[in-house]
Amino acid sequence: MKTTKAAKSTPVKPVAKKAAKKAAQKATAASGKATGVAKKATATIKKAAAASKKAAPAKTAASKKAAPAKTAASKKAAPAKTVAKKAAPAQAAPKKAIVESHAALVRRARRINRELAEVYPYAHPELDFENPFQLVIATVLSAQTTDLRVNQTTPGLFAKYPTPEDLAAANPEEVEEILRPTGFFRAKTKSVIGLSKALAEDFGGEVPGRLEDLVKLPGVGRKTAFVVLGNAFGRPGITVDTHFGRLVRRWQWTDETDPDKVEAAVGALFPKSEWTMLSHHVIFHGRRICHARKPACGACPIAPLCPAYGAGETDPEKARKLLKYEKGGFPGQRLNPPQSYLDAGGIPAPPLGAG
Fold it and tell me: What pTM value is reported for the model?
């Protein structure tokens, strides 16, 4: 019996080996497939890495190419900015504010006035007048217009209304028509008729010779009053018009802009006896050489004393072309100027409508 059992169980062992072998082969095949997949994945990663490396240099090259282009553009733009900075000082900049004592300022201001007196010995009020009444009316009319235009207009006005009483009784519409060329003719008509009435009623038809009386008249302020006092009555006064204010600020006599403060500041630098002629010298210079927009610095006789030298044309030849009135050979402001002006080569202005 034992021999029979042993004989029957012996064939089982080879079968098990075969099964184990097959299982091992399957496992090996599966492992091979897994390895292949892993290899493929690794290859894919390597390819991606290689592509990334290729892309990186391309990007770097592009950035390197772009960077020089930007640098070149900036380098080209930079000189343009530098050139612009260099081109700015084509015209000489005005001198900076000077620091001087009050005594030094007084000396410089008086020297300027003395030199202007030598250049303009014939300086005079540039309004035509024959008496105080004509002067006060002409000065009121000179607001917001030129003395030349006033001088061309007043002959017709005074021919028709020679006295304060005549103008006080005038028809406003007729006066407006005469004064139309001076601008703001309605307001000016009201002022000159009101002024004439005040003269006729309060001062017996005579222009008063005191500042406190003059400033009470319609249309008469301190500037007008000083023009009348200085030129009709021989009483000193400073006339602060636009030319006067502009020049004394350029010369750094004062930095005030209010006319009354300018008058006080400049008046303190000069003896009272010089005030009227000082006004004429400064205004003459402002109209002829030291213009508001284009000062003729290259033709200015007081250039060494002027802190604002260089604010205008400094070339002598170009500056001479900017001169006005007698120094440039052009007619002056007055139709009937003083003989001294004519002797100096001044040319009378033409009447209204001439030429």
Answer: 0.72
Running DSSP on this structure, what letter comes out for residue 331?
B
pLDDT 10s digits, 161-173: 999 999 999 999 9
Q: What are phi and psi of 122, to 5 degrees?
A: -100, 15
Distance CA 103, CA 105 (A): 5
Q: Per-residue b/e over 231-250, b at no fewer than 16 CB within 10 Å?
A: bbeebbbbbbbebbbbbbeb
Q: Are 138 and 158 spatial neighbours (Cβ–Cβ below 8 Å)?
A: no
Are the beta carbons of 296 and 311 closer than 8 angstroms? no
For the chain, how many residues are written? 355
Q: Which amino acid is at 125?
A: P
Cβ(239)–Cβ(225) below 8 Å: no
Distance CA 123, CA 231 (A): 12
Angle made by CA atoms 89, 92, 94, in degrees to the nearest 5: 115
Give the Å distances, CA to CA, from 298 to 110, 283, 309: 22, 19, 9
DSSP 327: G
Burial class (CB in 10 A: 0-12, 13-18, 19+), 300: buried
Distance CA 300, CA 309 (A): 9
Q: Kindly list the catalytic residues.
A: 223, 241
